[in-house]
Amino acid sequence: MEEFIKKAVDMATTSGGQILLAIVVSVVGLLLVKLLVKIANRYLGKTKLDPQAIKIIMIVVKIVLYVVLLIAVIEILGVPMTSVTALIASCGLAIGLAFQGALSNLAGGFLILIFRPFKIGDYIEATGTEGVVKGINIFYTRLATLDNRIVFVPNGDLMSANVTNLTCEEIRRIDQSFKITNDIDQELVKKVLSEAMTGTPGVREDPAPFVRLTAVDDDTYIFTVRAWCDTKAYWDTYYDLIENCSKALSENGIDDPEERIAVRLVGEDS
Q1: CA of 256: how far to CAs of 78, 111, 175, 252, 260, in Å?
Q2: What order do you get walking across the sheet with 220-230 strand by strand?
Q3: SS3 readout for 186-213
Q4: Where are the beta strands (DSSP E) in the chain?
Q5: Which of 69, 135, 199, 268 has the fewest C-beta atoms lying within 10 Å of its C-beta?
Q6: Per-residue pLDDT tens for 5-58?
Q7: How many degrees, rounded to 5, is the angle at CA 260 between CA 257 and CA 263?
Q8: What is the pLDDT of residues 11-22, one digit of tens each?
Q9: Are strands 210-216 and 140-144 parallel, antiparallel or unpaired?
Q10: CA triplet 49, 34, 78: central angle to 5 degrees?
Q11: 45 shares a domain with 64
């Protein structure tokens, strides 16, 4: 009995000190983690990073700090670090395999928020869909199509695909082609189209509008017009330009070869 009590006292003396130290380190460590997180959050708040990116960084910082604290406490308690390292590695591998797609989207969302290939309000084309960016979350980007459907695109797909941002620049160019019969004076066509472009609201003088003969078919001339406009007024200018050019051609008697009708006279049945 005395021997048992002695062993118990020795164990309590030895392990008790370790447990007490582990408790102290845990309390101090938790306070230190909160302080470091607060400092990091304040520092990142002064940068130009997106709030969502800051949120992701802070989550990672917290996880890393808590893992370091946990390892320190485990080491104080005398647990072999080889076993702990193997356990952490196994858990990390299992989680990575289970959430492979989610982690890819998380990484994609983080990169989008850091490098900003597009922002909320931009009109983009990517992964076979297009629309106005309505939201950039950690895992998905939300697009609103022109007919007001909402499409959720995984961020991992966006980072591995070509993304066309149609509204990131202040001005855009409109390209249109018009088919003309080849019996019309080319200079007249260019003059008519040029005047129609300059008379279209929204068409910019700089860069200057462009009109040239760009292709010749058997009985057809193809004239291409190019005009620049403000990005915000793109679609209004686009349709106004079509209407004005078509109307100007018609008023000057310049025909589209497809509008000509071939008339065939058929004799009376015998």
Answers
A1: 89, 50, 18, 12, 7
A2: 171-181, 220-230, 210-216
A3: HHHHHHHHHHHHHCCCCCCCCCCCEEEE
A4: 123-126, 129-136, 140-144, 150-154, 164-165, 171-181, 210-216, 220-230
A5: 268
A6: 555 455 455 566 677 888 888 888 889 989 988 898 888 888 777 777 787 788
A7: 140
A8: 455 566 677 888
A9: unpaired
A10: 125
A11: yes
Tokens (6 digits) for 225: 């017009």
Residue 267 DSSP symbol: P
Query: Could you tell me if 31 and 58 lie in one domain?
Result: yes
Domain of 238?
171-259
Residue written as token pair 């106005």: 132
The C-alpha atoms of residue 166 and residue 125 are separated, in whole angstroms, by: 8
User: Cα(150)–Cα(48) distance, rounded to whole angstroms?
Assistant: 29
Greater confidence, 254 or 19?
254
- Structure-block tokens of residue 208: 């200057």
What's the total number of domains in the chain?
3
| Rounded Cα–Cα distance for residues 158 and 152 (Å) | 11
pLDDT digits (tens, 9 = 90+) for 89-100: 777 666 666 566
- Residue 92's pLDDT is what? 67
**Is the bond into 207 cis (omega within 30 degrees of 0)?**
yes
Distances (CA, A) of 223 to 30, 87, 117, 174, 259: 73, 71, 35, 14, 16
- Domain-embedded: residue 187: yes
